[in-house]
TrEMBL record:
This is Flagellar assembly factor FliW. Keywords: Bacterial flagellum biogenesis, Cell projection, Chaperone, Cilium, Cytoplasm, Flagellum, Translation regulation. It comes from Paenibacillus odorifer. The gene is fliW. Acts as an anti-CsrA protein, binds CsrA and prevents it from repressing translation of its target genes, one of which is flagellin. Binds to flagellin and participates in the assembly of the flagellum. It comes from the Bacteria.
């Protein structure tokens, strides 16, 4: 399948890369199909709308930045995504002009079921996570390299 992107122009993606979001992503309810595009040798991905070339999200592997990141997926979300075993968890990154000010949203991860290619942004209601955590890893913060 060929999709159009703002960053790369026309791009070929496989069916296995396309995930269906029944209710879209909050704020973008009309867009339901997105391609997950890996940025080779990095902990980053793009989630690109298959229809709107202007709509994409930079995603990060939360475990690369916060190794102790964990949450319990609510039963209704597990059922909606029809999760049996494997899942992929990514979080939306907000880039800032100063890269060290960029943030990752650990409160509302993107949960993907690679088995049926369903996805959803899940808000963790009973969580101490925030929508804006620094991209500095826990280790950097513990080592005193977190800086303000």
């Amino acid at each position: 399948m060929i999709i159009e992107t703002l960053s790369w122009g026309k791009l070929e993606v496989t069916e296995e890369q396309v995930y269906h979001f029944n209710k879209g992503i909050p704020g973008f309810d009309e867009e339901t199909d997105f391609a997950l595009i890996a940025m080779e040798d990095t902990p980053f991905w793009y989630l690109q709308s298959t229809k709107e070339k202007e709509l994409s999200f930079l995603l990060g592997d939360p475990f690369a930045f916060y190794p102790s990141y964990e949450f319990e997926l609510p039963d209704d979300e597990t059922e909606e995504l029809e999760i049996q075993s494997d899942i992929i968890v990514r979080c939306i990154i907000t880039l800032k002009d100063q890269v060290d000010k960029s943030t990752i949203n650990l409160l509302a991860p993107i949960v993907l079921n690679p088995g049926n290619r369903k996805g959803k942004q899940v808000v963790l209601h009973k969580s101490s996570y925030l929508t804006k955590h620094t991209l500095l890893s826990e280790k950097s913060v513990e080592d005193g390299k977190g800086g303000d």
